[in-house]
Design a protein that fits this description.
mainly alpha; two-stranded parallel sheet
């Protein structure tokens, strides 16, 4: 919601080995970038706005970005790539910088992969970047993952006899990723351009968290930021309710409590307690739970 910031969704410049990411595109459909003709082909593919293997991220649809149809944009990107070392990092940086410039903005906010192991690559690609690492209560992550309509739920529907195993596998994956994020945080927390933010902190005290965020990334805080429902951006529907919650809602931080089983709750707590501590999160004392208990709307929703 800050003026001058171009908000971009996932581009999949970096993805897991099983994912068809940007490197897959280069390997299978572009070829050796030492050839200028292949650079031109790459730029053409990037702006097709069609389903292309390797360009599956939401960014490549360029929704609401009319300026990508300007032929000068592709020309500028192609020329800069030809003058660069033509690595994935350089291509990513050039693409983002030109999208920002042609969009009349000053900087970009980009959603990169959940896998935090890419932090070192991002810092190498964008030395002056600010990395905002966002975490959440692992029990909330597990319930979201196990109820994801486009992921776990669809697999359960396709293989109902394996429902229990599929959901437990999803839970195990979340625990593994959460513990990984804690280890990476321990390794990265001394970096000047890295900062950890907790979802529960945001919903318990939006202004305090947003002021800290703005200070970290170097923009001015504005009271309008406390009303995201008035901003021009999309919100992902909740995997638990199916609704798009746009305004800050403290109840959203603990909605997972309605669906988690006592056994899953104990398992996740037992396997992530140390990681929670490393990430500065204490589920026993965090104010978000007190905030929700004092909210009548949430009480009535539970009754």
């Amino acid at each position: 919601m800050s003026p001058g910031v171009l908000r971009l969704p996932e581009a999949r410049f970096l993805g897991p080995a099983r994912q068809k990411d940007f490197r897959y595109l280069l390997r299978t459909q572009v070829g050796n970038l030492a050839d200028d003709k292949n650079v031109d082909q790459l730029v053409k593919l990037c702006f097709l706005k069609q389903s292309v293997p390797g360009l599956g991220g939401a960014m490549w649809r360029f929704k609401g970005m009319d300026w990508v149809d300007n032929p000068q944009l592709g020309k500028a990107i192609g020329n800069r790539i030809k003058e660069s070392d033509r690595t994935v990092g350089s291509i990513a940086r050039i693409l983002l910088e030109e999208l920002v410039r042609f969009g009349g903005c000053t900087r970009a906010c980009v959603k990169f992969p959940v896998d935090v192991r890419h932090i070192s690559a991002l810092v190498q690609w964008f030395p002056n970047c600010r990395i905002v690492h966002i975490t959440r209560d692992p029990r909330a992550l597990a319930m979201s993952k196990s109820n994801d309509p486009s992921g776990t739920a669809s697999r359960v529907a396709a293989h109902p006899r394996l429902a229990w195993a599929i959901r437990k596998a999803a839970l195990g994956l979340v625990i593994s990723q959460y513990r990984l994020s804690a280890r990476v945080h321990q390794q990265s927390k001394a970096m000047e351009n890295y900062r950890l933010f907790r979802y529960e902190d945001l919903l318990a005290d939006p202004k305090k968290t947003l002021v800290a965020l703005c200070d970290f990334i170097g923009i001015d805080f504005a009271e309008e930021m406390l009303e995201p429902q008035n901003g021009r951006h999309e919100h992902q529907p909740s995997s638990l309710t199916g609704r798009q919650q746009k305004a800050f809602d403290s109840a959203a931080a603990v909605r997972w409590k309605r669906v988690i089983t006592p056994v899953d709750n104990l398992i996740i707590l037992g396997l992530t307690a140390r990681s929670m501590s490393q990430l500065g999160y204490n589920p026993k004392t965090h104010p978000i739970f007190r905030c929700v208990e004092e909210t009548p709307a949430f009480d009535s929703a539970l009754s």
